[in-house]
Specification:
about 120 residues, five-stranded mixed β-sheet, single chain, alpha+beta, binds copper (II) ion
């Protein structure tokens, strides 16, 4: 009896995992951030701890130094932002707090990812 129950659980597990994967992907949030002459727009975004979020960056100007960015807390370094072409980056912030993002060249731009519990 116990063995049968255990087998039933083991057989059910992959099905449960397969069920959950698409839901989790669908729940993944996407946030668009533009890089204009005013810098990052928006400068501050809000996300939840432990939830994957896709940041889509679109740089629309050559007139700032923000041509590549760093997000030190996510170990993102020199992520290149081509002109007029959106590029996506998925992160899953592990703890609540504020993660900064800025230009690679001079650590400018003052972007903030506010991570809540
Ligand atoms: Cu800069």
């Amino acid at each position: 009896m116990r063995l049968a129950a255990l087998l039933a659980v083991l057989l059910a597990l992959p099905v449960l995992a397969a069920d959950k994967a698409p839901a989790a992907a669908a729940a993944g949030k996407k946030i668009e951030i533009k890089v204009t002459e005013n810098g990052f727009e928006p400068k501050e975004i809000k996300v939840k701890k432990g939830e994957p979020v896709t940041l889509s960056f679109l740089r629309t100007t050559d007139r700032t130094c923000i041509k590549a960015i760093d997000i030190p807390a996510e170990k993102v370094k020199n992520f290149t932002l081509p002109l007029d072409k959106a590029v996506a980056l998925t992160i899953t912030p592990a703890k609540a707090g504020v993660e900064k993002f800025h230009c690679t060249a001079m650590a400018m731009g003052g972007g903030k990812i506010v991570v809540s519990d």
